[in-house]
Each structure stands twice: as structure tokens, then as C-alpha cells.
Amino acid sequence: MDETHAYWTTVSGRIERGSFETGAVDTLTTVTGSSVLALAGDALYFADGKRLARMPKAGGTVEVLASATWSPVDLVVDGKTVLVLDYGSGVLSGRVLLVSPGGGLAPIIEQLDFPRAIALRAPLVYVVAEHAMVSGQFVAGAVVRASLLMQPPVLIASEMRESFGIAADPGKTGRIYVGRAANAKLEIDGRLFIVDQAMSTSIPVVGDALALGMARDGDVFYVTVPGTTIGGTTKPSRLMRVPLSGQPVTTVVEKTGPFFTFPAVNAKYIAITQQHYPPEAPLDANVRVLCKP
Question: At residue 284, does pLDDT exceed 90?
Fold first, then answer.
């Protein structure tokens, strides 16, 4: 999202944007297969099952930057640096790819299984995956660091199972934040981990459902928890506010029906992508926009 619009993809393969002021929704383009988005200045970048491309964020001509057969699950753009997280098509086939200006693809981190998300604090690149092979070691819930300078990947944390996101502090603190939805025994235990060079601490977020996404707003994280129905018991989708200051974690909004997926935040608003299963004609995805608490 930017100051005036939220951007999202739909289950049926559209990239849309909606105005905070009017609520009007525009279709910008269509995509093939799974897709991810990133904003950079006036440009909207996206990767789908066949290509990495960019276009003006207000709509216009689509420029293909690279062609590939992949399954993108995350995309980071920082200046001229473009990183794509490819889910892969088999065991340990996930990878982080650096896209060159000429459209070439250079692997930064490979041998990932069920990769979840990437973060960049140039020149360092971070990825969290359900499993990874690092220096010949098979690691569960792996957080791996590598470099744009092609230095070998390094394991910096493990047992971050069912991760719902990763973020890196700017500057030289070395601190990263990892959302973990389940513990080493695969029991639901949603926590936000704060990992730095000396130690790791965590903040409990949710203990009764798997968190799915997170977005950072300074010293606060917003976490989405999709609704579930298990054994006849229905739990609503929730948006949680998680301060880093030690203040209590609170529920910003909850709703039964729509499936909350990923949050985004700007100076004024929080946006949550909602999916509807089965799709509610003519709606298969939309965005719920809230003023920040």
C-alpha cells in the first residue's frame, strides 16, 4: 500500500488497487498462477508463474524484467535490488533469486523446503523456511542469512516452524524479527521472535490458531490470524497489534466469515487482504481498511 491506495491480487488472477478516499477499485492487470507484489516509488513490481514484471502503480504498460517458470511466494525491491523467493517444485528446491538488470537470475540461497518469506538489509539477505539444508545440515524452521556479495549462507536460528513473516531492522543493529506460529513439537504457539547477534527473545501473540502474516509499523507489528472451524467450533479471523515495548498484545478487529490473509500498514491506515471461500460472486478477494488505533 501507499499513501492513497491498497494493492492486492485476487484468487481469479487479477491485480487490483483500491482508493482509501473513495473506495473505488481498479483492475491493473492479470497474472498467471501464484503471484506476489512490491511497490517501489511510482512502480508496481509483480512476479507470477511465468515472469517478473513492473508497471506504473496507477496502471499502464507492463514491462517484463525476467521470464521464468517458478512459484513465487515473496518479492522484495530496494532501489535496483530485486529479490524473488521461489517456492520450488520439489523437496529442497526453494531458492532466493537475485534479478539482474538484464533479466538474469542468480541464486543467493538454495536448498529451501517450504520457504515462507524474505527480508533485505543490504547487502544482507534473510529467509525463513520450514526446512533448509545449510552447510550439509538439514534444519527445521531455519532462518538463513546470505549476502548480495555471494558469501556462503549462514544459519542464524532454527525451529521457527510455520513462520508467518520476517523483517530486518535498518542500520547496523543486526536485529531481525521472525514470526513463528508453531513450536518444535508443531504445537500452536504464535510468537514474534526478536533475534540479534547476542540473544533471542520472544513476544507471545496467539495460542489458539496459526498466524499467517505480519507487517511492521515502527515499534509495532500487526499480525493476521485467519479464522478456523475445528470440531464444530468456529474462531473468527483476527488482526492483532503487537508492541515491541512490552505493552499488551491486543485484538484490533475480528470477524467471522472472511479469511484474513496478509496485512499492510502506512502512516494512517492498516489494510488486511480478505479472501472468501467459496468466492462470494462477484467477489473473491477484497481489502478491509482500518484507521490505525
Answer: no
